[in-house]
Amino acid sequence: MPNLPLSPIRTGGRSVRFFDQNLNVDGLSFNIRRSDRRKTLQITVERSGELVILAPPQATDSDLADFVQEKLVWVHTKIEEKARLQQRAPVKEFVDGEGFLYLGKSYRLRLVDSQLIDLALKNGRFCLRSASKHRAREVFVSWYIRKAQAWFEKQTLQCSNRMDVNIEEVKVQDLGYRWGSLGSGGRVSFHWKAILLPPRIAQYIVIHELAHAHHPNHSTKFWTKVEQHLPDWRARKEWLAENGMQVEGL
Ligand SMILES: [Zn+2]
């Protein structure tokens, strides 16, 4: 028997169309994630801009459509807010005097003719060899990765002892829209951009990821674990949500 095409449902005069795991409303595309553990509907706007509906398994298509309609104003506000935060990230030009972040401080760039290495941080300045300017971004990223590797290894070692977590490997890489990720087999990864953040914020990312070794989700138990090791986690989390985007202009 051929698959039956899904027919559009009309709600509030707008066209709503359902696909497998997708719901399109008012020009917005939502990914539907159903879970046995969910009791209520929830919409989230991910850092990537992805729109997600978290739903209990029994939620019907029209439940979802009604819920989205109800929340449309909120969703549009959230999307605008994300766009505003992202706009603040300036695109780097790698010119003299331009500021570059490292552990929360901004250092001005100076292009230098005579330098053996591509990039060095000395006397409070980033010194970039002029001959390397054409690949400045790559040079900066590999500098940040090197620094991040050392910093996050040290922090992870300290925190993992305190938090009774066994970590086998610390990786630093481009994690897209995530700051950190705890994998299986005791592997924890951090985004190299996290080394641009103030140390207290980067520490929060470490503790957040290691707390996932005890609780894989963001349940109340998880946040209690975070709080046990970082009583002011909430302020740090808020700072990251508000300012974290700034470091993404490189
Ligand atoms: Zn998490």
From TrEMBL:
Organism per entry: Maritalea mobilis
Residues in YgjP-like metallopeptidase domain copies: 39-242
TM spans (from-to): none
InterPro entries reported for this sequence: UTP_pyrophosphatase-like, YgjP-like_metallopeptidase
The protein's name in its UniProt record: YgjP-like metallopeptidase domain-containing protein
